[in-house]
TrEMBL record:
Xref: SMART domains: LRR_TYP
PROSITE patterns found in the cross-reference section: LRR
Taxonomic lineage from the root: Eukaryota, Viridiplantae, Streptophyta, Embryophyta, Tracheophyta
Pfam families in alphabetical order: LRR_1, LRR_14, LRR_8, LRRNT_2
Major location (coarse): membrane
UniProt name for this protein: Leucine-rich repeat-containing N-terminal plant-type domain-containing protein
Transmembrane segments: 954-978
């Protein structure tokens, strides 16, 4: 017993000593340390994240990102993910097979690094101890290795593609091998060739979260037998390429779903009633599909529903007031379903939604007083919880009331594009949490309230395009807005008063005060804004030149608009930060001197309507080796002279080029044809000569060409219609010296909607194929004729065209797509006007005046129902005015003067409303509005059967002459031959003369003098 009593404590002590020794041993094994060191050797680590992985620090369990088991000291986790990291912080290189030496590794996270297109290593499929593998956003490319199917213990797998590299799988047959999988993320992996994806996923009985968004999946099974996904809680299939179909019924069998995301697909038809089986649903995202019909009432009966997203569908009808039953609702977004409206007006039941944080109803027809809406939202629960309210384009009207100040937790308020009028209420300043506020394009008037300056948390405000007036003071309205990052207030009538020592918000990045009065001095306070990237002070009354410091400290500007001021002086070279794609509009000022040298990253430059002079050579040829990113270049309306240099090959990005209304001479250079992206070319109103360069045929995307009012000569080239320029919509060659005939090849331009060849020396006939111009006939209806250019999400440019129409010079821009015009006036064209021209039923303006057209006016003009202006004056047209003209109800300008037309002008309210000058110079025309009566005798048979002298047989005139001669000489001959008869005749005449004199002058008693025999 004594022995035993001594042995037992010794054994226990030894056992405890052994256990304590194991527990205290926290150093990883040499093999695992070596595996990590070898892994690091193949990794590029620019920021030194793995700097602790070194021999001097031998215990790898203490290395950054390494986690060991507390008992065995084996490496079990590697935390090397880098979400949100900058590029100079991420890991690169390759994945070493040395990781296979980590036999106990359960968790591997390499997500959001950048392995620059290498494939996912297949050896990862041999790391059988892994239960979590995160490789999302790592820049892997190529096929997903099927070896991953060997990881039977894996519970979480993320292979989310990213960084512009394509990761794909042609089969998912390996997926069922992951029998323990609970989380699967293949976002952005290309699964377009996988048709059995659903049946493969259906073999994962423990799967609770599945993300196959943006995977280019095209096949959506309508049925699935024996759904095994009872554990699935989260399903994300957004942004795929499913063929248009109704929502498959098998989705409704996933009764455990708490989140369903089907956004940005092409599902259509009504929202299926079977979805009401998803009684556990908390988040339902069905936006940007083609669902139609009404919102079903059962949707408002889900007890746990927190998030409803039905944006941008085609839902119509009434929204039930039972929406107030969704007491768990946090986010509701029904925006941009333009056929929806609330049953009985804006529902008061919303007052009971005590969890509501975000309410977005943009585009929903409310037709409601805005004050009533805020009275509802400002009472009870929403006033305490509501943070986001978006009601733009809701047809709201009326004035904002003080109830708006009750929404004290509101941080985002959007009321854009309504009919709200009146002043902003003083209670506006009570929304102390407001960070984002938009009320642009309403009818707000009055002055900006002082309370606006109390919104200390405001970061983004847009009050532009209203009628706010008065003074905005830096001291009263702006001093406390220290967090303001964006202020857009263009289009109001405001005077800015700034104290000399005012310091604007340091983080202000976007400032748009267009049409405010900021001048006359250049605003020196701009010097205090260090991070400004967008500035619009256009039409602001500035009369001083740019100071030198402006260009030095604002080289990071990507948008600058100082147009429509009176800024004088010279521009320095505009060399900007290399990472910035810049848009500068300095048009309509008084800038002078030579053109500045610009950075290659100047995307948009408008220097039009200034006094810039000199030639284009230095401007175009500086840094010829640099590829220019400029897409829009407008130098119109300056004093530029000399020839257009042949240096366009480095300007390949140009889409719009405007050099019009300068003093440019010489020929159009051949290198213009290298601008393959060109959409619009305007070099009108210069002194150019020579021919149109044939290289222009290479600009196959061009839509608009305006070379008017130059001295270009030779024939109009056939290649304009033969090849290349098949997208051409506008061709203006007005006022040049072009000779020869109009080429028939122009008739093949199926998009041509404006053709102006007037004021040239063209001859020959008007081709009959003119009737084939589809865009003028209405057989083609597209919108490519209008050029819009968007930069930074904003519409920066709209194509325009100046036309001579309705006898006036007009400029068209926003409605240019609806304009159809044919102007061939002031040429030497001859022959008949082809009847085929009447096929052009959408033509609005036709001018064929001052030519030598003969024959009649085409009779089927009634088919040209859109015609607003018709000028056929100064030709040799004959025959009658076609009755069809009287049926052209849109015709408001008509000129048929100085032809050889004849007959009665057809009677109609339309034609008789024109001035007589519309018909003058046609000697054979009669009837209103001319002051020439048509013969009533010849009109006895009714209108349309008139007989005039120019229509009678010539024998008729001969018989009249003969009858006159016979009658005349029958009376005169006897008097001339017989004297007695002559004396008797003159005596009778004297007697009758005396009698007539007595009657005419009885008071004078005189008589008419006697006739002499």
């Amino acid at each position: 017993m004594i022995i035993n009593s001594m042995i037992v404590p010794a054994v226990i002590c030894a056992l405890l000593s052994w256990m304590c020794g194991v527990a205290g041993s926290s150093s990883c094994s040499e093999a695992e340390r070596e595996a990590l060191v070898n892994f690091k050797a193949d990794i590029q680590d620019p920021s030194g994240r793995l700097s602790s992985w070194s021999g001097s620090n031998g215990d790898c369990c203490n290395w950054r990102g390494v986690e060991c088991d507390n008992t065995t000291a084996h490496v079990i986790k590697l935390h090397l993910g880098c979400p949100g990291c900058f590029e100079n912080y991420v890991l690169k290189g390759k994945i070493s097979p040395s990781l296979l030496g980590l036999k106990h590794l359960r968790y591997l996270d390499l997500s959001d690094n950048n392995f620059q297109g290498i494939p996912i290593p297949g050896f990862l499929g041999s790391m059988s101890s892994l239960d979590s593998l995160f490789l999302g956003g790592c820049g892997f490319a190529g096929a997903i290795p099927h070896q991953l199917g060997n990881l039977s213990n894996l519970q979480r797998l993320s292979l989310r593609a990213g960084r512009g590299y394509v990761l794909h799988a042609d089969t998912l047959q390996w997926l069922p091998g992951l029998s323990s999988l609970r989380y699967l993320n293949l976002r952005k992996a290309d699964l377009s060739n996988v048709s059995d994806w659903l049946s493969m996923v259906n073999n994962l009985p423990f799967l609770s979260e599945l993300d196959l968004s943006n995977c280019r999946i095209s096949h959506m099974p309508s049925h699935l037998m024996n759904v095994n996904l009872s554990s699935l809680a989260v399903l994300d299939l957004q942004r795929n390429e499913f063929a248009p179909t109704s929502l498959p019924i098998w989705v409704s069998h996933l009764r455990g779903l708490t989140s369903l995301d089907l956004r940005y697909n092409d599902f259509r038809g009504p929202i299926p009633d079977e979805l009401q089986n998803l009684t556990s649903i908390r988040a339902l995202h069905l936006s940007t599909n083609d669902f139609n019909g009404s919102i079903p009432d059962w949707l408002f009966s889900f007890p746990h529903l927190e998030d409803i997203d039905l944006i941008s569908n085609k839902l119509v009808g009434k929204i039930s007031s039972s929406i107030g039953n969704l007491t768990s609702l946090v986010n509701l977004d029904l925006s941009f379903n333009y056929g929806l409206e609330f049953e009985g007006g804006f529902p008061t039941s919303i007052k009971g939604l005590c969890q509501l944080s975000s309410l977005c109803l943009s585009g929903i027809t409310l037709k409601h007083s805005v004050s009533d809406v805020f009275e509802i939202l400002g009472g009870e629960c929403p006033s305490e919880t509501l943070q986001v309210l978006e009601l733009d384009s809701c047809q709201l009207f009326g004035q904002l009331s003080d109830d708006i100040g009750n929404l004290k937790r509101l941080n985002s308020l959007v009321l854009t594009d309504n009919s709200i009028y009146g002043s902003l209420p003083a209670s506006f300043g009570g929304m102390a949490s407001l960070k984002y506020f938009r009320i642009e394009r309403n009818k707000i008037n009055g002055t900006l309230p002082v309370s606006f300056g109390q919104l200390a948390e405001l970061r983004n405000a847009d009050i532009s395009q209203n009628s706010i007036e008065g003074v905005v003071s830096s001291e009263i309205h702006l001093a406390k807005l220290t967090k303001l990052a964006s202020l857009r207030a263009a289009g109001n009538h405001i005077v800015l008063e700034v104290k000399r020592d005012w310091v604007p918000p340091k983080q202000l990045a976007v400032l748009d005060l267009s049409s405010w009065y900021v001048g006359p001095h250049f605003p020196i306070w701009l010097r205090e804004i260090e991070h400004l990237v967008s500035l619009d002070l256009s039409n602001s009354g500035i009369l001083e030149p740019f100071p030198d410091w402006f260009w030095g400290m604002h080289s990071q500007l990507f948008y600058l608009n100082m147009s429509r001021n009176q800024i004088p002086g010279r521009l320095p070279n505009l060399i900007l930060a290399p990472s910035v794609d810049s848009l500068f509009d300095l048009s309509w000022n008084r800038l002078e001197g030579p053109l500045p040298i610009i950075s290659s990253n100047m995307t948009f430059l408008d220097l039009s309507n200034n006094f810039l002079s000199g030639d284009l050579l230095n401007f175009l040829s500086s840094n010829p080796s640099q590829v220019r990113q400029t897409e829009f270049l407008n130098l119109h309306g300056n004093l530029l002279s000399g020839e257009i240099p042949d240096y366009w090959s480095s300007w390949q990005s140009l889409k719009v080029l405007r050099l019009g209304s300068n003093n440019l001479t010489g020929k159009i250079p051949e290198s213009i044809g290298s601008l393959s992206n060109l959409l619009s070319l305007r070099i009108q109103n210069n002194s150019l000569s020579g021919e149109i360069p044939s290289s222009l045929a290479n600009c196959s995307n061009i839509v608009s060409i305006d070379l008017a009012d130059n001295g270009l000569e030779a024939n109009i080239p056939n290649w304009i219609g033969e090849r290349g320029l098949q997208k051409l919509s506008i061709l203006n060659l007005r006022g040049n010296k072009f000779l020869g005939e109009i080429p028939e090849q122009l008739c093949s331009l199926q998009h041509l909607q404006i053709l102006d060849l007037s004021h040239n020396f063209l001859s020959g006939n008007l081709p009959q194929c003119v009737g084939n111009l589809s865009a003028m006939s209405g057989s083609r209806n597209d919108d490519q004729g209008v050029i819009y250019l968007f930069f930074g999400g904003a519409k920066m440019f709209v194509e325009y065209q100046v036309l001579v129409a309705q006898g006036q010079v007009k400029a068209y821009s926003t409605i240019l797509n609806y304009v159809r015009s044919l102007d061939l006036s002031w040429n030497n064209l001859s022959g008949e006007i082809p009847e085929e021209i009447t096929r052009l039923g959408t033509l609005k303006y036709v001018n064929l005046s001052r030519n030598s057209f003969s024959g009649g006016i085409p009779g089927d003009l009634a088919s040209m129902t859109s015609l607003e202006s018709l000028d056929l004056s100064g030709n040799q047209l004959s025959g009658a005015v076609p009755p069809g003209l009287a049926s052209l109800t849109f015709l408001n300008h008509l000129n048929l003067s100085y032809n050889s037309l004849s007959g009665r002008i057809p009677s109609s309210t339309q034609l008789q409303s024109f001035d007589a000058s519309s018909f003058m110079g046609n000697k054979g025309l009669c009837g209103l509005p001319l002051d020439v009566n048509c013969s009533s005798e010849n009109n006895s048979s009714g209108e349309g059967n008139e007989v005039y002298w120019y229509d009678m047989d010539w024998w008729y005139f001969i018989s009249i002459v003969l009858g006159f001669l016979v009658g005349f000489w029958g009376a005169v001959f006897p008097i001339a031959v017989y004297p007695n008869l002559r004396s008797l005749y003159f005596g009778f005449v004297d007697h009758m003369g005396n009698k007539l004199g007595t009657l005419l002058m009885p008071s004078a008693g005189g008589s008419l003098p006697a006739s002499r025999g």
